[in-house]
Every structure is written in structure tokens, then in C-alpha cells.
Design a protein that fits this description.
The complex is a heterodimer of chains A (310) and B (446). By secondary structure, chain A is of the alpha/beta class. Chain A contains nine helices and 14 strands. Classes of the chains: A alpha/beta (310), B alpha/beta (446).
Chain lengths: 310, 446
Amino acid sequence: MDILRAENIVKRYRNHTALSGVNIAVPEGSIFGLLGPNGAGKTSLIRIINQITGPDEGTVYFRDEKLSPHHLSNIGYLPEERGLYKKMKVGEQSLYLARLKGMSKQEATRQLQIWFEKFEISGWWNKKIEDLSKGMAQKVQFITTVMHQPKLLILDEPFSGFDPINADLIKKEILRMKENGTTIIFSTHNMGSVEEMCDEIALINNSKVILDGKMSDIRKRFRSQVYEVEFNGNMIAFANALWAGFELLEREQVEPNHFRSRVKLLGNNTTNNLLSALIPHVEIRSVREIIPSMNDIFIEVVQSQNQNHG
Amino acid sequence: MGKIGLIIGREYLTRVRKPSFIIMTLLGPILIGVFLTLTIWLTIGESGSQKVLVVDELGLTHQVFKDKPNVVEFDYRTTHLEAKEFLEGDQYDLALYINKNTINGDKALLLYKKIPSLSIQSYINSELDAVMESYRLMKANTGPEVQKFINEEYPKIKRHIELETKNAESGEKAKTKHYAAVVGYVFALLIYMFIFLYGVQVMRGVIEEKTNRIVEIIISSVKPFELMLGKIIGIAMVGLTQFILWVLLTGLILILAQSLFFPDFYDAANQANFTQVANGISPEQAAINFESNEIYDLIFIRINWALMLFMFLFYFIGGYLMYSALFAAIGAAVDSESDTQQFMMPITIPLVFGFIVAQMAIENPESNAVFWSSMIPFTSPVVMMVRVAMGFEPGTIWQLYLSMALLVAGFITCTWIAGKIYRTGILMYGKKVSYKELFKWMFYKG
């Protein structure tokens, strides 16, 4: 089942359209990547999901119910522009935010104590935010986003500004939450940072979804048929062996007699055909498929779209 | 409502716990107390015993003014007295004229050589009120149905006499600012101050949330309008807390100061009343005695404190809600406090204007400027306080009701408009906003 479905969302601002007819469906229990360059409309869509603003057209459904304020306690949101009250104490502030999400004081205190222990920050309860380092404040921000155990967690540019240790901690925590059934939406322009975690993605560019679906399907669709081949032997012999059915894209010498190259399969050739063509001539060290990154795919889709639209 | 309650709680508690709030709350009453004590002390020292000649050609009030030892002494004559004659004689400091005009028009004349202090003037005035009251009582109370009489006729009898105080030589009117108007002015000043102080706090709070970037986290849990309203109400409660503490502490300090520095200010009659009550004399009887006490008369009869406090609360809350909503909208529209200047102007000007008109109202309550400013919601919270203190002429009380209704309409409109601007503004960063822009925000869809 889809935990969230946005149908035909349109949002216009005075000078531009932020979203024009956007459809997304986020399956329950998945990690969903909302990818696209800055200004594509990701934050506008997220704000609509969080009911900070309303769409001009279209409807959002939360588990097949029309999205309404009572769903907010099921959603955790870490905005891109995030901060805390500087003069408020960590514990007091976390309690306040938890109670705004509808938790009772006792439940919030209990949950917070668990999280504070997990993140090893129990000693900060009575410290003011202004006395914490940026990294410390980020931990508190993350905790306040997840402490009410949301069914849907929305993280806008989650890893920007996090130091590597915190980023790793939070990645682990996100994966653990996914195992417990939480659905996670990542929104980022930095596609490399999340692609290994995402099950599904939607690519947004210029206010439209230009590509969406399961990560594995997309990868399949955009297979480049390019392989990296490392071998010991003679470069000329190698190139001659590729004469029919293959194209040598790149080559480099690693050591004398040790080369690394990129080869594209042409026609219906398979890796087996490649190997049987090469084995008589050189000694194969490794063969690995070159998987296009989301960034490559994005550029390819945008370029082909631009060509289509002239 | 639950979430707004949380917001109100946070706004209130974080501010009330601040050292600056605690210091201001304690320091304010001490300063006011010291100032008032000094003023009383200075005015007591100044006049000495004043001899008043009551000129009563009709013989209405023979020998009934009560002296106040060492402060005011009365003497009487029933024949005409020319101002010149009074001036030339050195026996009397003041001459109080009671004539037909006093009976029919509730007016009397007080001539002076050297202007008497306000407390002496008000003592004479309250004595005059009491004397005329007993005169009218005597005149009216002929029938047997006394109870009915007290219910129906007594309010007409108990009237305040307007005392015109003039320099005997020049005939110039003394600038005895109406005591009540001055009290009203103090309330107006408080409202003016509180709207400014706490309105700006609302604006700062909004800017803080915006620059801290916490606002988006909060409005993913509550509606922006709820956040704005919660902030405004929370800060209003801080203001009311401060006000109540000021009133209580100032009262306490004044009572302390009185018993420490002016023990003889408790006059004998007053003391007697307490003993009478203690000795089992009926409270009603004691109350009658009590009413003739000068201070009691001033504080408890001439100024309707219950009404004043109610109106203060009404106009403070109404005016504050209206202005602070606008302050919140400004806070949302800018990125930092230094950008607020251009938007502050149109808000501060009507407030300052109202304050100036309130000063005018003391001298000239009938003027058009005072009337219109007491109607327009942007100035009425300040100006109307002076008018309420002075009381309304019969048949003009509708002005108060209209002004109150307009204020309610004003703050609902302003809050609505401010809510629109606020909602768009708080998520807008790094943009210099113009009035044109703000106007457009009012029509954005949620």
C-alpha cells in the first residue's frame, strides 16, 4: 500500500510555477528519494505534504485518506532550513516540540530519555542550545524529528551540514527505522548521497516529475552495457580481440603489462561473448559492470528531454 | 486549542523567567513608589494651613465645613464679598463662593491669592460636595418613605460640584487639571507603553523564530496562524502579569511609605472608623462615617475604579491584539531587526498621535480631535482611557460602546490581514520586501 500519494499537484507563485501536475506515490516501508536540482520544486512539494502550504490544485492522500491536520502526528519533518530556540534548554525544547506533535508529557519524556541515551547526550538536558556545537544541535534536531515515532519521516537535504560521524550515525538510525516499518522520504539535490539507500525515487526538474519508479527498475532501464575490464597482457592484442561486436571506450595503463579499460557491448552481445572473445588473447583480472549513477541518469534524462522539446 | 495552549505556555514561561522581566517587575513599583512618595512629601510641605472664607450669601451651609487641622481651616460669612476686598485683607488665603449657581448649576468658585496645592483643592471640593449633599438631603427628605427616597432620589442628590479655581487678582483660571483626567492619563500612558513594549516583543519573537530557522519545524506541527496567535496571547499574559504585579507592589510600597513617612496622614476620623468597626458598630454606619473621609472620597467615589480597570483591560487587550498582530506581520516580513524601520513608521505614528491627543483630552475633552481619536481603533485605546476616567455626559455613553465595537472590529481585521502576511513572510528569506509585496501576500492562497 502507498503511505502517501500526491495526485496532480499544482502550486503557483507570483512569478513562477513551483509544481505543475506532480504525481508521486510512496510505498509504505520504503525509502523514497525525491531528487532534483535546487529550485526544482522539491521543498514546495514537501511543504504541501506537511500542510505548511496548500496546493492550488490536486490532492494528497495519506493511507488513502485525504491529508488533514490530524495526520501531522504521523509525520516527522526535518526541514532544510532547520534550527532551534537558542536560549531554550535542550530538554525543555525537545519536550515542547514533542508535545506540539501531540505527545503527552510523560510519553515524550520517556521517549526523549531513550533517544538521549542512544545518542549519548543525556548530560545535555539542561544545556542551552547556544552552548552546543553545530554537530550537537544536529543530533537534537534529528531526535526531535523522530521522537514521536512517525510513520512517515521526511528529511529535506538531511546530510547537508552534518559532520561525517553524525551523518553515519543518522544513516544507521534511518535504516533501523525502516526495518521497523517507517517510511522515509529523502529530498536532496545531492543524488550521490542517498542513492545507495533509496528503494524508489522520483526525479523532479522544472516543477515536473521527469522520472520515477523503483530504483532497481530505473537502473535496469538505464543500463549502459559498459563494462570495466582489467587485464594483463598486450593492449594491441586486446583491441584486436574487440574488433567485432564491442567498442573500446577508454583505456589506461596501470602498470607495465597491466591495463584498465572500458568496453561497451554492441548488438546482442553478452558478457559471456566478451569473455570468450578476450580469453584467448589476454589474462583477465576482473570484469565489472559500470552502473550509471543517479546523477548520470538525471543528466541523460534532462538532456533527452531538452532535445525533445527542441 | 491544546497546541495553542502549549505555544502560549512557552512564550509566557520563557519570558517570565528572564532576569530582565523580574528586575523590571520589581524596579517599576519601587520607582513609582519613590516618585509618588516624594511628590506627596513635597506637596505636604508646601502649603501650610490654609484659611478659607466660605462666602455663602444664601446662608445654606452655615458652619458645616469640617476643618482639617494644620491643613485647612474654614470661616464663614453670609454677606457679599468683593474679590478686591478679599485680596486686600490678609486674613484668608482662599475664598469659596456658594450661591444660586451652586444649587442650580453644581458650580462654585474658589478664589486664591497663591494657588493652593492639588490636595487642598480636592479636600475643599470634597467637603463642598459633602456639604451640598447634606443640604440637598435636608431639602428633599420631607416625606415619610425614606427608603424609597434613598433608592430613587439619593443618586440625584449625591452630585459632584464643579469647583472653578481662579486667581483673585487676575481672574485667571488655575490649571487644576481634572484629577480624574490625570488618572485616566496615567492609564493611557500605561496602555501606550505596554502596547509598544510588548508589541515589539512580539515582533522580536517572530524575527527570532525566523532567523533561528525553527519556524518551519513548528509550523509543520501547528498552523502558522496558531503560532502567531499563541505568541501574541502568551506575550499579552506576560504584560498583564507585569501590570498586576506592578499594581500590587506599588500599592504595597505606598502603604508602607504612608505608614513610615506620613503617619499623620491617617486622620483621626479614619482611625476611629476602624475602632468603631472593631467595637461592633454596624459596618453600614461605619461606612457612612468613612465616606466623609477625604482620601476615601477621592479614591473610591470620584473614580469608578472597577470601570476604569475593566476598561483598561479591554482597551489594553484590544489595542495590544491589534498592534501586536501588525508587529508580528512586520517581524515575518523582514530578515533582521535592522530591516524593520520602514514598516515600523506607519504603526508608531498613530500610536504616538493617540498619545498626544490623550494629553489634549485632559485640557479639552470636548474637541473633535479627541472625539475622533477615541473612535478610531488605532488611537482609541490610548485616548478613550482619559475620557472614561472623566466620565461621560448623559446621553453620550454610546460613544464608548461604539468605540469598543470598533476596536473589536479593528483587531479582528488587523489579525486577519497580519495572519496572511505572516504566513507567507516567515518562510521567505533573503528578500527585501516592499509594501506592494506585502499587499500581494494578503491575497495568497493557503
